[in-house]
Amino acid sequence: MSTNIKYTDEPIGEIRIVQDFLPTPSELVFREEGVKVTLALSKKSVEFFKAEASRHHTQYQRMVRRLLDVYVDTQSHTIGRRADQSSRKRAIG
């Protein structure tokens, strides 16, 4: 399967600059402050997260924490949009 690659001197097509979207190294090491809580979860939920964590070589607590963080981020944006919409309705009406 070793075939030679032949390169040609063709003009480069359209070039576009892609905005840098990667986080800086300092952002990668940042950890949010944690708060310890006691939480009773259903057995099936814990078993599910433990199995998935094992498959992905991570900790199940980290997966649960990430799930909650994503939920909060999503709901915060949704609630913010709802507040903006109701403010506009009051201003118009």
**Termini gap:** 72 Å
Which residues sit in consecutive blocks of at least 5 with pLDDT less than 50? none
Helix content: 40-55%
Question: What is the alpha-carbon Rg in Å?
Answer: 24 Å
Q: How much of the polypeptide forms β-strand, as a percent range?
A: under 5%
Series of secondary-structure elements, N-terminal to C-terminal: HHH
What is the 3D form?
Answer: flat
List the helices and strands and how they pair.
Blueprint (H helix, E strand, L loop, with lengths): L24 H5 L13 H13 L4 H33 L1
What report would you give on this structure?
By secondary structure, the protein is mainly α. It has a domain at 40-92. The protein is built from 3 helices and no strands. Helix 2 (43-55) packs across helix 3. The longest helix is centred in the last third of the chain and has 33 residues, at 60-92.
Task: Fill in the keyword field for this structure.
93 residues; mainly alpha; 3 helices; 0% strand; flat
Brief overview, please?
The chain is an all-alpha fold.
